Structures
1.
Amino acid sequence: MKTNFIKAMNTAITIFGDDAFRKRRAREDRRKPINKALFETLSVAFSKLSDEETETLIENKEYFKDKFIELHNELIFYNSLASGTGLKPSVTKRFSEINRITNETILN
């Protein structure tokens, strides 16, 4: 578990740098505080990747970040990070969308 957590943190930093776990609606947004719901979702998603999948995701990090920003501009997803974050629909939405763009990035 510790190894997977460290891998997830390294992946997040490699992809996002100082913007890891922060909401972002545009590349030029100013840096926001760390969002606990994003921390949870990205940590779990990245920890489940194989080493090969992690490499591919990192190689395509610009594509992933573009998709990540697009997600933040979808009201339902954005709300799943902002209010009622513990409600089942919010949790399901967050995880399904992050998993979707992660898989899309890896398969592209």
Note: The chain has one domain: 2-107.
2.
Amino acid sequence: MRLIWQCLLVVVALHPLVARAESPPSRPPNIVLVLADDLGWADLACYGADLHETPHLDHLARQGLRFTQAYAPAPVCTPTRAALLTGRHPARLQMTIWSEGSLQRDTDRPLRQARSRHDLPHSEITLAKLLQQRGYLTATVGKWHLGDAAHAPETHGFDINIGGTHWGAPQTFFWPYRGAGRFGGEFRYVPHLEFGRPGEYLTDRLTDEALRVIDHAVAVQRPFFLELAHHAPHTPIEAPAADVDYFQARLRPEYKHQNPGYAAMVKRLDDSVGRVLARLAERGLSDSTIVIFTSDNGGYIGIDGARQLPVTSNFPLRSGKGTLYEGGLRVPLLVRWPGVTASDSVCRAPVVLTDLFPTLLASANVSFPQGLEIDSVSLLDQWRDPQAPLKRESLYFHYPHYYHAPPSTPASAVRSGDWKLLEFFEDQHLELFNLGQDPSEQHDLSRSEPDRAQALLRQLQAWRKQVDAQLPERN
């Protein structure tokens, strides 16, 4: 009898250990990253837009965390997309202009633009590769723009690629999404979207494909990383006529935003986010999915040729896409992760999209290779507590190229605290702003604060040397 009791005590004592050993590891969160193209910081209602209506994105902001000083790592698309996927600065990657622009170096300008890679090297370790190794189903739907066919998404860790090519913009936003004439004689198309119908709209169709990815991931019971990289609201400014007419009727002379076609594109982008959120809810995935919405650079303020109107306005920020002023760099950033991000919370710390690389890896409990040099910090502390101190003092930007609208010349910039310095390479002139007092960058303090300007310039020059930033040359 005594022996029986001893055996029972051993079984009872071991039972908790056995239970723990058989418990499956906690499932990592799903990740949905919605990346808009050329959407400005002030283009959402929750960031102060007047003409535009974005109820689904506004709802996402109320459900989670909104960043007010989030930056793209570059003022144009390809460098930002490369930096986001690698956690490395565009200058370190030597990818500082969009892919097509990297092939056009000689100009009749005072400077020859700096050399920039056309393709994201296979030696780079991407977010998708690391999540794929963790067991994630990885998918990109929409714009790729990081290299030729030999450097397609499938070569950088994505299991699924729908619509991704080396081109930066579609010929048209309406099915069959192909043709020539808008970009010279080049014929462009969006692959894998062949079975459409007349009148079908690209933003809607890419959303359809993204929902299929979510359904497939559920069917195969795998965590997933979905990058839904919309072409909207990049030019050409095209949208369904009924949406354009709706915003035309809403126009007011006092509005900063005056382009009904662009407003209609933003509406369809907002609808897309609403559909993705609804599908996650239908599948019971809302609480287990990180949802991120952002843009690859500031809003484009060139002229919409069809309407002879500025495409958008980044007011109160200065300038737009292609420049290192705030209007070219600052972007909306919304994050929802139930149980981690608090509802209707706001973070005012200066962050950069490159930070998503270590943040998402930490969220999925994935370590990146030892010795990998990255130019980013994890924002998990800020996701949990928007007031948490950020472990970084300065942000750097490098765009050693010309841009056409607005006309701008090659430059670098550094932001340290509230102070921001720009150095222009044509004539080496400096501009200094205090963003805390002057977020619109209207008052250049470089002459009244020469010591501060020179100290920031030395800091900027030392950083460029550290990352081997490529510089323009005299023509």
Note: Confidence is low (pLDDT under 50) at residues 1-25.
3.
Amino acid sequence: MIKVENLTQTFNTGTIDQVEALKSISLEIKEHEFVTVIGTNGSGKSTLLNVIAGNILPDGGTILIDGNDVTKKMDYQRAKYISRVFQNPYSGTAPGMTIAENLLMAWFRGKHRYPVSSLNRALKNKFREQIATLDMQLEDRLENLMGSLSGGQRQAVTLLMAVLQTPKVLLLDEHTAALDPKTAAQVLLLTKKFAGAHNLTVLMVTHSMQHALAIGTRIIMMHNGRIVENIGGDDKKQLTIEDLFAKFENIRKLEKLTPELIKTLRNQYI
């Protein structure tokens, strides 16, 4: 479903701030796979997601989604393939529109139809049924403004919007990072539920090793613009947090990360 070959991306080329964010990245994600991406700060994981989404056009390499070459297409041109949920609960929605109107916009995603006058009773009933699955008591609040919701409620609705029309690919950009632990756990459960119910192909960037271990079929570990670990199957099922830290320790030995950075990683990723 996703195939990237030899992706390269450099920022601030020719200056003292030049950064090689992606260094010849190649990766294949099969249909219905759920892949999580972890890595140190500046490892390139968010850049990889942005390049696949089309927010950034790569300096080199190719990107295929469901066999279609989208390398030179902008994000809006990839919208028929991709849905995305951002880290900020207030991104990806219209705060001045009602919950129902936001869901309506998501419902007509990729369709050649102007939706303003199409919020009929049948659709409202459908949206009420769908939003009840979030278990957040929002089914009777469809006329409330999206901006009136809490961060966790809004993120849950955003996740629902992303799957109303089943996408080829769902990109999750640290979508639980801004939430408190209880709400993050609830949104993660919804993520797992929707991924299974819709047989989605998912790529999720996360700072939480616990989340990476708890969900998905494969873990990609990035460091310094490269993929340094690609763990799936039984190997992934048997992984522990200590195993992942041991892999970071090996990176330290190979690339001379400081013990202070390893300590920071332990504090940050648990």
Note: The beta strands are 2-11, 19-29, 34-39, 60-65, 68-69, 82-85, 169-173, 202-205, 218-223, 226-232.
